[in-house]
UniProtKB/TrEMBL annotation:
Organism: Pelosinus propionicus DSM 13327
Xref: PANTHER family: PROTEIN YJDM, PROTEIN YJDM-RELATED
Keywords linked to the UniProt accession: Hydrolase
Tree of life domain: Bacteria
Alphabetized Gene3D superfamilies for the sequence: 2.20.25.10, SH3 Domains
Family: Belongs to the YjdM family.
Domain named Protein YjdM C-terminal: residues: 45-111
A Pfam family per the record: Zn_Ribbon_YjdM
GO molecular function, one term: hydrolase activity
All residue ranges annotated as the Protein YjdM N-terminal domain in the record: 5-33
Protein name in UniProt: Phosphonoacetate hydrolase
Amino acid sequence: MMMDLPNCPKCKSEYTYEDGSLLICPECSHEWTVDGDNSEEKKSIKDANGNVLSDGDSITIIKDLKVKGSSSALKIGTKVKNIRLVDGDHNIDCHIEGFGAMKLKSEFVKKL
């Protein structure tokens, strides 16, 4: 009896297979857990206003933020383009002009 396995979330390949509790894609070598097809719903990251953020969004900083190891701060209203969502406490990875690579908490930003 063959189960209907989900396509690979990374490359959309239909040739996924099961190995214990993992699903594996033979084309791109991506591995994820069987309950991983709901991970997008669980991992929804929201801004300060409750809007769901996604990779590539543009955001604005809503509070002056001190930058560890720097004498200057990120000012309210600073616009950031093309964000990337990551796991962890600081769940937004981005590049801010004048500061460089930065990780931000979603509670201090709003979606444009």
